[in-house]
Amino acid sequence: MIKAILHKTFSVTLALLVLFSTVSFTIEKHYCGDVLVDVAVFTEAEKCGMEAMEMLQKKTCCKDEVDVVKGQDQLKFSSFDDLEFEKVQFLTAFLHTYIHGFESLPKETIPHKDYSPPNLVTDIQVLDQVFLI
Fold first, then answer.
1. How far is CA 25 from CA 69, 70, 73, 108, in A?
2. How far is the CA of 2 from the CAs of 5, 9, 16, 49, in angstroms?
3. To pair with 82 at 20 to 30 A between CA atoms, which of 13, 47, 55, 59?
């Protein structure tokens, strides 16, 4: 029971690790002066509304910062055709012995499975006075 739970937990953890290591995303920050106004992940950050005034004054007090977090994009995909002959031979021998190594035994029939013993009326050992010493 515990082994199955640990196995499933470990599998889910590894799947999430692969997923999060390959995901790329951007974090966009909008500053108005030195004050952080908005932070957005995957979308564009909301502006503070000072852009209209900046166009008239030709002076910028707002700035945008974009951080790009790149995921891993160099995953190695291999197929069964890329393996060497010795490895293919080992894998086929291993799979053959693994699959055929766990053959089940024939079912045994138990003739007295549904038999219920009779009710005891008296204790036969006391009746015959036979005691184990």
1. 5, 7, 13, 61
2. 5, 10, 21, 57
3. 13
Rounded to two decimals, the pTM is 0.43
> Cα separation of 133 and 130, whole Å?
10
Tokens of 11: 């599998």
Q: Which two tokens stand for residue 4?
A: 């199955």
Q: What is the DSSP letter of 33?
A: T
CA angle 45, 47, 52 (to 5 degrees): 150
Is the CB of residue 15 less than 8 Å from the CB of residue 22? no
The tens digit of pLDDT for each residue in 107-129 reads 888 888 888 888 878 888 888 88
Tens-place pLDDT, residues 18-55: 888 888 888 999 888 888 888 898 888 888 777 666 55
Q: Environment class of residue 50 by beta-carbon count within 10 Å: exposed (0-12), middle (13-18) or buried (19+)?
A: middle
Question: How far apart (Å, rounded) are the C-alpha atoms in residues 3 and 90?
Answer: 28
Q: Amino acid identity, residue 67?
A: D
Instruction: Indicate the burial class of 38 (C-beta count within 10 angstroms; 0-12, 13-18, 19 or more).
Output: middle
